Amino acid sequence: MEPGPTDTTFTPDDPGHPDYHHRQRATVALARWESATPCRYRQATATHPGVTAWAQRAAADSRDAGFLVLTGTIGTGKTHQAYGALRTIAEAGPPRFEFIATTAPDMYGRLRPGGSDKGTEYELRRLATVPLLLLDNLGTEKLSEWTEEATYRLINECYNQCLPLIVTTNLPVRAPLDDHGRPTGPDLVGRLGERLASRLAEAATALILNGPDRRRHLRSAS
Ligand SMILES: Nc1ncnc2c1ncn2[C@@H]1O[C@H](COP(=O)(O)OP(=O)(O)OP(=O)(O)O)[C@@H](O)[C@H]1O
Ligand SMILES: [Mg+2]
Predict the structure, then answer these.
(1) Domains of the chain
(2) Where does the record place the IstB-like ATP-binding domain (predicted)?
């Protein structure tokens, strides 16, 4: 007996249609984003054109994006844009959406010997292998030799594995130089060292977020 005709025309609402699966992935990724995002940033969306462009690149091919470094003074919206970038990636419905967001001081606390149950090497591997990492407030403290080495190992691993990494910092990447060629103030390069500066120069999209402290503005507006 001849098999009857089969209906192979899927609509975007049918399982089997690429749009359907794409939507399913985006829904799961967004739920994951929301549960891992601190309350204050759950409304965050990326509005800075450079941030959205980076996030779209990361969503299309995470190996292409490189690092995103957001610099600026206190309260200019760096963390907001960083979580917004992660949301943009989630909305794109990537095949795998997994991220770790940590502040640098928290990270050093866990990496320190005795700072976590599973130990320094385990923590470092966890951070260095997650598909997306947000390192918030890097450079707020002067690094000891030990923390500088841990930061180097982590960022170098992301660099080697072409993993996307978002860094926010209050420091400029490079401070202006004085007449003697010395930096006029602290900068990321001085804090992290030239080995990392060289990798950032190659792999990073560095954006400066200017403006007043939004927290004071929010306060006076309420
Ligand atoms: N585009 C935005 N729309 C609405 N609220 C925003 C926006 N950007 C930032 N905010 C709010 O402004 C406040 C400061 O933003 P955020 O914490 O991102 O600043 P920051 O640059 O990371 O500050 P810091 O340098 O102190 O870490 C927060 O309450 C945040 O929710
Ligand atoms: Mg912040």
Answers:
(1) 18-39+46-221 (3.40.50.300)
(2) 64-173
